[in-house]
Amino acid sequence: MVSSEMAPWAKTGGLADVVAGLPAALTRLGHRVTVVLPKYRGLDPTDCRVTTGEVSLGAVQQQVQWHTREGADHVRTVFVDCPAMFDRAGYYGAGGQDFADNADRFGLLAVAALDFAEADGAAAPTVVHAHDWQSGLVPTLLRTQPRRWPRLSRAGLVFTIHNLAYQGRFSKDVVPRLALDWRVFTMEGGEFWNDFSYLKCGLAYSDYTTTVSPRYAVETLTPEFGYGFEGALQSLGERYLGILNGIDTTIWNPETDPLLPAHFSASDLAGKRECKRALLNQFYLPQGDDALARPVVAIVSRLVAQKGFDWIYEAADELMALDATWVVLGTGETKYEQMWQAMHDRHPSRVGVYFGFDEGRAHLAEAGADLFLMPSLFEPCGLNQMYSLRYGTVPVVHAVGGLDDTIRTYRPNARHANGFKFTNGSGAELAATMRQALRLFHNPVQWARLMSEGMADDHSWDQAAREYVRVYKRARRDARDLR
Asked: Is there a domain that residue 198 lies in?
């Protein structure tokens, strides 16, 4: 696997969690997995074997070290150490701007990953799996320059889109600079509105392309969610499919979570009340009996438009009039931070905010809240709703992408409901759905049933890993047929 992120080493979002969780699940099925990612500034893995070499990227040659670490979960991680490319203040940019040489940086990652696999003393990989635009040149190089990496020439190629909004678009000047054949700059290759897209390269040159939920795979075939790629994805036919992400159930487990002040389970929820009290304390909110009886709504999110904050702004007065307490953890666009700060200033005993990210607070929010709000405009998969289910915290979501796949909405007499969702995106419908959820909160029998259904759901990586193995086998078979 090749990726720009992998938890716990480098993380900005769900990509890192996937690239940590899926390999571990694959090893439990008996497969050997190697993950290659950059060695960013501040990343200092221990117990590594270091090898040195020279990587050719077009006319430029870079000295590179590969730091290879054997993990306790039998996943081998390789860190590409090239200070000129990766020893920087951010992964992709700084000061709100992308690095101008990102095409070269992640082009080097692709070549370095393939060079490592070619020279590796272990058995040749039977599958190469690239993640998101940062790894889009991996299948492109293998398909267009197979003699350069003969050990990998018959490997199945799989590419996963984690979020179609991030496309790796660069000037077409990249093509000759990286010594790529101009034949890659076509509508069937990486050309995208006269730019060169690493993401389009990835899906164009792979045997199979996946994305992170079945619903998102369907949505991205439409202009509303396809970001201009809907035609390219439609052309893949059955070679494009959605596999729902899993979560690491060893980390996200209310019975053992070391970041919680008390543990609990579906059969004994007593510890959840202690977590609720601790959550209110962390956000400097009242913690008396009245406050503990009042429902707590949590939001843990990047504060950006995609996450539905304009709908929250539209409905702010209605939402603040509800008998609920709100805790918000995240960072992002200034206008949304200011929005939540203003709500806190107007309702200091009902709204707690923390601008930034803190793993302990994130776990406490999942455990201590009663409801978790995710009104995303689009959501390829989403992980927080699955964490919430596991912690007995009832999700309220917009019915898109993986949110729609994982949440079964409450209706009177409905069986197996585990949350609430709204389908027509607006502030008014968001507020109406929150009112419905809060009414049900005061029906202890019904609410306990919702919590129980959610906590019984299996969102571990094991099922997803089995589905990926089926794709890998098909990709390997097709690779043999095509080459």
From this structure: yes
